[in-house]
Amino acid sequence: MAGRLYIPPFDLNSLLPDLWQPQEAIVSPNMAPRRPVSIIRQEGGRLSLVNAFWGLTPPWLKVLDHAPHCARAETLDQRAMFRDAFAARRCLVPVGGIYVWQSRGGSKQPYLVTRADRGPLLLAGIWCRFHTSLTEHNDSMALITVPANSLLSALTDRLPGIIDHRDALTWLAPATPKQQLEALLKPAPGELLGAFPVSRQVNDPRHQSAACAYPVGPMQRLTTS
Question: What is the pLDDT of residues 31-81, one digit of tens each?
């Protein structure tokens, strides 16, 4: 699962040179669900960076706390709110990493999963729109999760799907066939990601210090001899 995100400032144009950014990207060293995040989606034939509430909120949802912040890739077809968004409203969430918690006896140790080279990640997501009036609306999103790879499975069973920046246009294009989209939702290559333990202060989303993402131990990563 993905209950917390690390979102530092970074140059998105280095990944997506044609990205239109009408507003500044939201950053947070410790982003929790049910907060606004920046997403990338296709608008008017171009890639745009916009803000959306993290928790998929269709118009019929009665209780905001029930807004799902994640959807399993394997069961997207089982709920209409996920199925319809996956077919027509896909997005990417740019982050620096994902926090996960490893159980250790009676406690849990937080880890930050990042690219092994600490570069940005593009997470697979879906979004929807709730019109509050004829002229106003709210957008919301959920991440799509896939099984963790063998390196990280000791820390967590699932992680958000990661879309390579070279596949961003394919992922976001409305006409991309479903089979091709599903092929992108797979565990990350073992050499792509690493994880290192971080301070337990990240357990409280009120802590927004940059120290939340500082390593307190070595990175676990795939090594080649």
Answer: 999 999 999 999 988 999 999 999 998 877 776 677 899 999 999 999 888
Q: From the CB of residue 139, how many other CB atoms can be counted at a distance below 10 Å?
A: 18
- The Cα–Cα gap between 14 and 123 comes to 16
- Single-letter amino acid, residue 91: C
Q: Which residue pairs, CB below 8 angstroms and at least 24 apart, start in 209-215? A: 209/29, 210/29, 211/29, 212/6, 212/29, 212/30, 213/6, 213/8, 213/29, 213/30, 213/96, 213/97, 213/112, 215/112
Which token pair is 60?
A: 């019929």
Residues 218, 81: Cα–Cα separation, whole Å: 40
Bridge partner list, 220: 195
Record the pTM: 0.94
Separation of CA 67 from chain center: 16
What pLDDT does 132 receive? 65
C-alpha angle with apex 28: 26 to 33, nearest 5 degrees? 90
pLDDT at residue 193 tops 90: yes
CB-count exposure of residue 185 (10 Å: 0-12, 13-18, 19+): buried
What is the pLDDT, as a whole number, of residue 135? 66
Residue with tokens 């019929």: 60
